[in-house]
Amino acid sequence: MTDISKPIASGRMLLSDEMIQVFYRLLAAFLICAALTILTNSFFSLGNILNVLRQASLLFFIASGLTLVVLTGGLDLSIGANVAISACVAGTVIHQTGSPTLGVLTGIGVGGAVGMLNGVMVTALRIPSFIATYGMLWVLHGITYWYMGGETMHGFPAGFRQIGSGYFLGLPIPVYLLLVFLAIGTIFAQRTTWGQEIYAIGANPVAARLSGIPVARRLLLVYTVSGAMAGLASIIFLARLNSAEADIGESLTLPAIAAVLIGGTSLFGGLGTVFGTFVGALILTLVLNGMNLLSVNASWQPLVTGVIVILAVWLDMKTRRRAA
Amino acid sequence: MTQLAQSKAAVSIVQAAPPLFELRGISKEFPGVKALDDVSFSVWPGEVHMLLGENGAGKSSLMKVLCGAYRADSGSFHYNGEKVEITSPADAQKLGIAVIFQEFSLVPYLDIAQNIFLGREPAGRVPGTIDRKKILADARHVLDSIGFDIDPTIRIEKLGVAQQQMVEIAKAISQNARILVMDEPTAALSDRETELLFALIARLKADGVAIIYISHRMAEVFSLGDRITVLRDGRRIDEVQPGAVSSDDLVRMMVGRSVDMSYPRTFAQTPGKVMLEVKGLSSSSGIAGIDLVVRQGEIVGLCGLVGSGRTEVVRAIFGADKATAGQILFDGQEKSGGPDEAARLGLALIPESRKAEGLALIRSVGDNLIVSALRKIFPRGFFDQGKSRQVAYDLIRQLRIVTPSDKQAVGLLSGGNQQKVVIGKWLAAGAKLFIFDEPTRGIDVGAKAEIFALIDRLVADGAAALMISSEQAEICHVCDRAYVMCDGRIAGELARHELSEENIVKLGMHHA
Amino acid sequence: MREQAMVLNTNPLQRIPGVAVMLVLLCVVFSLMTPGFLTVPNISNVLVQSTILLMLALPMTLIIMTEGLDLSMGAVLTLTSLIVAIVALATGSLLLGLLAAMAVGILFGTVNGWLVAVVGIPPFVATLGTLGMAQGLSLIVSDGQSVVGMPAAVRGVYSGTLGGVPLPIVLALGSYLVFHGLLYHTRFGTYIFALGGNREALKFAGISARRLLILVYALGGAMVGLAGLLMTARMNSGHPTAGLGLEFDAIAAVAVGGTSFERGNGWLLGTLLGVVTVGVLRNGLNLLALPSSIQVASVGLLVIAALFVDGLRSRS
Amino acid sequence: FADGETIAVFTKNQTNPYFQTVRVGSDVAAKAMKAKTLHYIPTKPDSIPEQLSQIEDVVVKKPSAIVFIPVDYKAMVPGVEKINDAKIPVVNVTDRSAGGKFVAFVGADDYSLGLETGRYLLKTLGGKGNFVIIEGVKGSLTNIDRVRGFNDALKENPGAKLLASQPGNYQRLQALQVMENLMQSNTQIDGVLAANDAMAIGAIEALDGANRKAQVIGVNGTKEAIDAIKAGKLLASGDYNGFMQGCLGMMIAIRSLRNEPVITEIVLKPTVIGKENYQPYDVPLESRTCPSWDEAAKLGTK
Ligand SMILES: Nc1ncnc2c1ncn2[C@@H]1O[C@H](COP(=O)(O)OP(=O)(O)OP(=O)(O)O)[C@@H](O)[C@H]1O
Ligand SMILES: Nc1ncnc2c1ncn2[C@@H]1O[C@H](COP(=O)(O)OP(=O)(O)OP(=O)(O)O)[C@@H](O)[C@H]1O
Ligand SMILES: [Mg+2]
Ligand SMILES: [Mg+2]
Question: Where are the transmembrane segments (chain A) (predicted)?
Answer without folding.
Answer: 22-44, 56-73, 102-121, 127-147, 167-189, 220-241, 253-286, 298-315
